[in-house]
Amino acid sequence: MSSTRIRELIVTPIAFGDPPLLNSNGVHEPLALRVILQLVLEDGTVGLGESTGGIVRLERLHAAAKAVVGMDVFDSTAVTAAIDAVLLPTVPSSHERGWTTSAVEVACLDAQGKLLGRPVSDLLGGRVRDAVPFAAYLFYKWAEHPALDGRAAIGDDWGEALDPAGIVEQARLMQERYGFRSFKLKGGVFPPDEEIAAMRALAQAFPGQPLRLDPNVAWTVETSTYVARELEGVLEYLEDPTKTIEGMAEVAKDSPMPLATNMCVVAWEHLKPAVERHAVQVLLTDHHYWGGLRRTRELAAVCEAFELALSMHSNSHLGISLAAMTHVAAAIPNLDHSCDTHYPWNSADDVIVPGVLELRDGEVKVPTGPGLGVELDHAQLERLHRRYVDSGMRGRDDTGYMRRFQPEYELKLPRW
Ligand code: GKR
Ligand code: MG
Description:
Elements: E1 6-17, E2 22-23, E3 26-27, E4 31-41, E5 46-52, H1 55-68, H2 76-87, H3 94-116, H4 120-123, E6 131-133, E7 136-139, E8 144-145, E9 154-155, H5 164-178, E10 183-186, H6 192-205, E11 211-214, H7 221-230, E12 237-239, H8 245-254, E13 259-261, H9 271-276, E14 282-285, H10 293-305, E15 309-312, H11 319-330, H12 343-346, E16 359-360, E17 363-365, H13 378-391, H14 398-405
Parallel strand pairs: 7-10, 10-11, 11-12, 12-13, 13-14, 14-15
Antiparallel strand pairs: 1-4, 2-3, 4-5, 6-17, 8-9, 16-17
Magnesium ion is lined by residues 214, 239-240, 262, 313.
């Protein structure tokens, strides 16, 4: 029994390359931040976790690391409760506390799986599919990060995408490289009519393949209603056109297609009002803040009860997160849509040993090795940690970075 106790939680902040992807807040910086967790047990078993970066959440993970020492790794409910209790006095938002507890829960499950010799999907009730479908995540983007403060420009092999033709070309590349069979466009960047044109161009280029558009609350209720009508028959769902449960409920009244969210329903207490007001029809779950993989499985059951369809949200991430997303998606019977992933944009810098996770035919095969089934590349972890230290970057600032090139740029939500 003592060998299953937690000896240490090693928390390592990292930075990895990210292209200039545009969104309603500005543009992605050349580096994205994450945190890698290594949960070390008394017997030397190590469970892995990955979470979003930034100094605030990093400090919370350090606080969590102190709280979990000596606890039994199979007692993951108690482990997350202990972390929650430590954060509660200073972090009132359950959504915010969820970012910390979730990352540690995943590391617990990875360690449990390794001890038992079983994949994490087995610990979640077993997989109902052997491969998980993902959508191509399209972004308007610049051809390169412009030269800045003596740093040379940073290009990539995706090229520019600033109009419908550029988006269709990016979608073709995504399909060619990874075989995606559904497409999501991150909108909220250009005036709505331009984004409507991009979706129509995608529909023409990829007939019959599911499409979705996510402007990250860049629109008013009126604009959202207009776009929804214009895109009738084109979208499988429209994601977060406008802010708040109330706003989404207004749009939903007249929307010809389902509305989805990863913005107005991000904690358990948001579910009741959203269901009561019929604000959303598709919930984009994310194990990184809903409490981990078991809680995500439970969330899927709640969605089933209230006839909410289920899809999955993503943020810039690496392979430990992709493995966790794949295991939980494999164990959810009512996964109704392909999952989002940023992985093609960031995978070149991955922190895991290559070979297990492959995006092929628009799917990732569920790893069958013990735990998450992925192995940490320690040399790469060290390199990415050095990059974090040397960069001096301590948080994501898409708006500030945009202003370096367009000083008049203003963060305005809704913008249209
Ligand atoms: O990477 O720019 C981005 C996305 O906008 C991301 O930050 C969102 O969290 O992809 C996400 C979404 O679906 O809202
Ligand atoms: Mg979204």
